[in-house]
Specification:
Nucleotidyltransferase, domain 5; 4-stranded mixed sheet; elongated
């Protein structure tokens, strides 16, 4: 550049020992902790000097910009993201964190809506993958999570799906509960049907059917579908989580 500075592309494998006053870490989520702390970060241990070679105490030193697609919360850079987010609250003049979903470029005509909707509802693209690539949402568990999502998901498989009420000749007192987590406007409403088998001193409960009503209007589409499910299962109780808005 005209002032004598330069922009150099480096690799974590070949850049050990180099020096720089500023760093842009592209696809930062792929960088491991040891490579960052022992190879990349030490490169920025030199202060940026003025044209005359003097040091300006007000000049930012070792500034870094992290650019990345969201990934799993288990990677090292998720911890760095949380650290930067906390510092953005405590020291807003020094730190800044932001993330964008596909809705922003879609709003300004940079991407095709039909293509994005096809990806969003594709059965071959997982919700986690779409969340990371298109919504800037980090997924999975962090090291401090109480529950392991992978182990939990293995328990969510329905062995027997009941699409309507079925009589139980062994237990005439069997009944159903329909649970509904209501979402308004363009969000998703989750429905869970629970089969309850009363016993002498306890109740056995089995989830026999689940359904997600995607992006439907809660008056014109969600309510009619819920009425259909109620007719199919004739539940004893309907439990609705409306968060005080329904």
């Amino acid at each position: 550049m005209k002032n004598g500075s330069s922009l150099t592309v480096v690799s974590k494998d070949t850049s050990r020992g180099l020096r720089a006053t500023f760093g842009v870490l592209e696809e930062a989520a792929t960088i491991e902790e040891q490579d960052y702390t022992e190879v990349l970060l030490p490169q920025m241990n030199v202060a940026r000097r003025e044209v005359d070679g003097s040091l300006n105490p007000g000049e930012p030193s070792a500034s870094q910009t992290f650019i990345t697609t969201a990934r799993e919360k288990t990677v090292y850079m998720y911890s760095k993201l949380i650290e930067c987010a906390v510092n953005a609250v405590l020291r807003p003049s020094e730190y800044f964190v932001w993330g964008l979903s596909y809705e922003v470029p879609l709003r300004y005509g940079l991407i095709d809506k039909a293509t994005m909707m096809e990806q969003k509802y594709s059965t071959t693209i997982s919700e986690d993958s779409f969340a990371r690539e298109s919504l800037s949402i980090w997924t999975g568990n962090s090291d401090e999570a109480w529950l392991n999502s992978k182990r939990l998901n293995k328990k969510r498989t329905l062995l027997n799906c009941e699409r309507k009420a079925q009589e139980n000749p062994r237990n005439k007192n069997t009944y159903y509960i329909v649970s509904v987590d209501v979402a308004r406007y363009s969000a998703n409403t989750a429905v869970m049907v629970i089969k309850v088998l009363p016993e002498e001193n306890s109740y056995k409960k089995h989830v026999v059917y689940t359904e997600v009503i995607h992006g439907a209007n809660y008056i014109t589409e969600q309510a009619p579908r819920l009425k259909e499910l109620i007719k199919l299962y004739n539940p004893r109780e309907i439990v609705i989580d409306g968060n005080g808005r329904t």
